[in-house]
Amino acid sequence: MKVTFPCFGSSNVYLRPCVYADGTFGLVLPGRRLGRSGFYRVVESGAEHWRVRNFTTLHEIFHVYADEDGVLRTDSQRLLSWGLRF
Question: What is the pTM assigned to this prediction?
Fold first, then answer.
């Protein structure tokens, strides 16, 4: 899944899907290296030139499931940046 935030260039988040043992679904952003799922900042650096930076310090987990009423929920999001949990 790709999420883009346009702001003086763009911030792009690429989340990788996963399935947990209990059958629920997750979207994860391990942020390990360039070219994989993660958080990328893209800014213009000249005519027809762009600069891309991968932030490997940002890690997110979205646990997606249907509750007992069949409502889709994402109650357990974890965000870790620079070793700090938010």
Answer: 0.70
